[in-house]
Amino acid sequence: MTSATLAPDRPAGNRRSVRGGLPLTRVSGLGLGVAMVWFSLLVLIPLAAVAVTAAGGGWDGFWRTVTNEQTAATIRLTVGTALLVTLVNIVMGTLIAWVLVRDNFFGKRALEILIDVPFALPTIVAGLVLLSLYGPGSPLGVNIANTRIAVFLAFLFVTLPFIVRTVQPVLAELDPEVEEAAASLGASRYTTFRRIVLPSLTPAIAAGAALSFARAVGEYGSLVLLTGNLPMRTEVASVRILSSIENDNLDSAAAVAVVLLAISLAVIVVLDVIQRRVMRRG
Length: 282
Known about the structure:
mainly alpha, MetI-like fold, globular
């Protein structure tokens, strides 16, 4: 007799339960309800309020705000610099994670701690540190204050740990014996990395890149001292939003915020698509 003959028939309702998951119990239903209420209070309702405020002036008012020369310049600078910083972090963050996991060297523990400094340091203090090193009277002889390079440097400083900390635990869990087996079969280091290591790291890299981009787009504190917030030159979107609020123009502030939100969501979707394609090809 075959295994199919021996297996008892399951009721249709049970088969549907297996496919669709177990029904919620009272406790799990209560937990889901609390989680959704909490998420709504912290995320969904504030986002909806911003969208409603942005629409307060109508489509014409929204379009005039986001196409205003100064506003458009701040959005281009913010998004362009955030994308560039994210690309740099993808390379350097993965490299740093690789060194921390695969290599042993003097000062490794100190480096592990220093990586998290941008997380722990208040952003205004980070701006003061960067100004001391790269502003007027710099001990390094480098003065980039009030330039777009200062915006790039500030974004780079505050976003450094994201990809390192998302990639590092995944890399630590990879079995080196799989790479050794690939090498014994004649695979080059590049092929081993591309076909074995990279597909495993891609979800972590994509998650870190999304966090890095979102953090850079919303950065404010580290820029205040170093960039000078010069309109059309070093002013970023967060400063533009604050200026609109101070001038009692909430519609304009909300319009810029909605544009940044839409761009961030688009970047997350693109990263997810790239992640899936890399994993399939791997």
